Write a sequence for this structure.
């Protein structure tokens, strides 16, 4: 029997995950659904987790890390105390849950929690990969639900939130809470930058209470209704079924809850009556913040509640290979043939993996238009540099993480219009690789030091090279989606900076660069040594500056739609030409100034 008091955090900074596990233990059967197979005699366990909209399986053995070394490897001064007493040493340091280094159960004979934590860590690479995170995303991974990030300061009608949302905890929703802050501080026992589980919401005798738990298994709320406070009487102890104890669980009033906690993660659960469908695509991310011409089309056949989720790949599975770019997602929903949108996603402050919206829809076709805003961290290493520095030292781990990245990108298709832009990136990437190889040859160094990422993972130049050869990321053929329904759209000169351009470079300059590249290739084929000498003498500072300003962002995004509609479908389409001329207050690339310039040009023609 799994209970909330079983859970205690270990040496890894995964309080967010343990808070998520605590949250789901309050719903009967959820933990059991994650552990799908086990053979206790052999010591093998099988778990499933949600990854990028689909369930994945992970198998682990029952070997767990201990806080101390084995007897034969122990320090000499420890051995001196147990000289010739190996059995006594093992009884002291290697038996029961207290001996474990990472998460542990309250019951010393139980191991379900450390095994679950081990499986989750293995699925993501190692224990280091699960340090730091958001409880809402952890609950998503464990349940397949959809998490919305809420802020207590944004709750305008707290009475309605209590009745329609929080009272549904452990039914339609699961909740977690925290206090945002880069500096750890304590607010009457509540730790900032730490994750908490919301276990119950009760209204008794006109008073509203929330039961919260700290995954540490200690350090509790010290305000009103805390353990031992003056508010507690024998009657209230009975009514709320509460017992005092330093177990990490505590009651607090609803008013104190929304006042002390700044963030609430609300996860919607789905039962078998819901249908889910999703599509993944790979798109270039423009330097200018504009909506993508590639869009999703949702076909709804039954009136009802619909949950729409736009997500990017979970980089935790291939941490270190995400490169210099980070993305934020935005989308809006409008009915086919209409220009006004019905709803749009709300940007998250913390969780950036996905954004969502919930709405009631009538039968019909709806268009989801999305925008990806990217940021480039020039201080972070590029994928190529990570490969060159790490592949020699831990090849097994490198291949494991690289394969995870490759498989993640393999699910995405690339639209023909987007593939043209990505191909331009590939051409630039090949040119840079040639320059690195020549530089290595001139310096007499190992050419492998200048190798790029190749096709070991998807995205960026590696994915572009694979796409240009007629294959999708991960070796799968690239297939156009919604054949016969895609309208080609020419790149507008007003559309700002395209992906694959250097910052501040125009389309004409890019075309000139391509001509120069073709000339260089021709000269190389003819074996002209003068060009090679000029390449070798190129200033390294200028090369570094070019790499720093070059924008080649590519994102893999997926649309996931939930509805109680058996015929629910999602397709990928391309924007018709006339859509690019619409004035849109959400799109800085299509502003009133741009339209005014067009009007001036028409007046001059007249």
């Amino acid at each position: 029997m799994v209970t909330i008091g079983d859970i205690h955090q270990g040496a890894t900074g995964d309080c967010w995950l343990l808070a998520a596990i605590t949250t789901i233990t309050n719903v009967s059967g959820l933990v059991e659904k994650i552990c799908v197979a086990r053979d206790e005699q052999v010591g093998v366990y099988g778990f499933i987790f949600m990854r990028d909209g689909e369930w994945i399986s992970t198998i682990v053995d029952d070997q767990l890390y201990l806080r101390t070394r084995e007897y034969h490897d122990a320090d000499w001064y420890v051995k001196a105390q147990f000289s010739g007493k190996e059995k006594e040493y093992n009884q002291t340091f290697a038996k029961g849950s207290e001996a474990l280094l990472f998460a542990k159960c309250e019951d010393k004979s139980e191991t379900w929690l450390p095994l679950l934590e081990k499986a989750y860590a293995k699925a993501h690479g190692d224990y280091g990969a699960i340090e730091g995170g958001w409880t809402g995303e952890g609950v998503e991974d464990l349940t397949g639900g959809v998490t919305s990030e809420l802020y207590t300061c944004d709750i305008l009608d707290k009475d309605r939130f209590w009745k329609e949302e929080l009272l549904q905890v452990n039914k339609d929703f699961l909740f977690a809470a925290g206090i945002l802050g880069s500096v750890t501080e304590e607010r009457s026992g509540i730790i900032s930058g730490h994750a908490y589980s919301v276990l119950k919401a009760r209204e008794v005798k006109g008073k509203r209470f929330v039961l919260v738990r700290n995954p540490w298994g200690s350090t509790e709320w010290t305000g009103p209704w805390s353990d031992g406070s003056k508010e507690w009487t024998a009657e209230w102890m009975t009514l709320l079924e509460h017992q005092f104890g330093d177990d990490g669980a505590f009651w607090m009033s609803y008013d104190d809850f929304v006042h002390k906690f700044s963030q609430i993660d609300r996860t919607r659960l789905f039962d078998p009556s819901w249908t889910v469908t999703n599509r993944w695509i790979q798109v270039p991310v423009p330097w200018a913040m504009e909506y993508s011409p590639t869009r999703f089309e949702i076909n709804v056949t039954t009136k009802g509640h619909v949950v729409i989720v736009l997500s990017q790949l979970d980089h935790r599975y291939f941490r270190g290979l995400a490169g210099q770019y980070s993305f934020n997602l935005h989308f809006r929903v409008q009915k086919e043939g209409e220009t006004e949108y019905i709803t749009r996603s709300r940007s998250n402050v913390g969780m950036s993996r996905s954004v969502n919206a919930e709405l009631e829809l009538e039968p019909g076709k709806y268009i989801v238009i999305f925008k990806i805003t990217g940021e480039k961290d020039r201080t972070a290493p590029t994928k190529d540099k990570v490969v060159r520095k790490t592949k020699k030292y831990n090849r097994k781990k490198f291949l494991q993480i690289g394969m995870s990245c490759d498989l993640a990108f393999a699910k995405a298709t690339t639209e023909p219009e987007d593939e043209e832009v990505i191909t331009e990136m590939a051409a630039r990437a090949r040119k840079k690789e040639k320059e690195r190889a020549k530089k290595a040859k001139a310096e007499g160094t190992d050419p492998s030091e200048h190798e790029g990422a190749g096709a070991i993972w998807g995205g960026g130049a590696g994915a572009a090279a694979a796409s240009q050869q007629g294959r999708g990321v991960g070796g799968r053929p690239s297939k156009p989606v919604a054949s016969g329904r895609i309208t080609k759209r020419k790149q507008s000169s007003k559309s700002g900076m395209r992906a694959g351009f250097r910052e501040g470079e125009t389309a004409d300059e890019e075309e000139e660069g391509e001509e120069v590249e073709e000339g260089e290739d021709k000269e190389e084929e003819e074996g002209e040594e003068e060009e090679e000498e000029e390449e070798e003498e190129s200033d390294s500072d200028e090369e570094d500056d070019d790499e720093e300003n070059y924008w080649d962002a590519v994102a893999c995004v997926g649309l996931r739609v939930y509805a109680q509609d058996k015929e629910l479908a999602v397709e990928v389409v391309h924007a018709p030409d006339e859509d690019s001329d619409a004035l849109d207050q959400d799109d800085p690339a299509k502003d009133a100034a741009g339209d005014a310039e067009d009007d001036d040009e028409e007046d001059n023609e007249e």
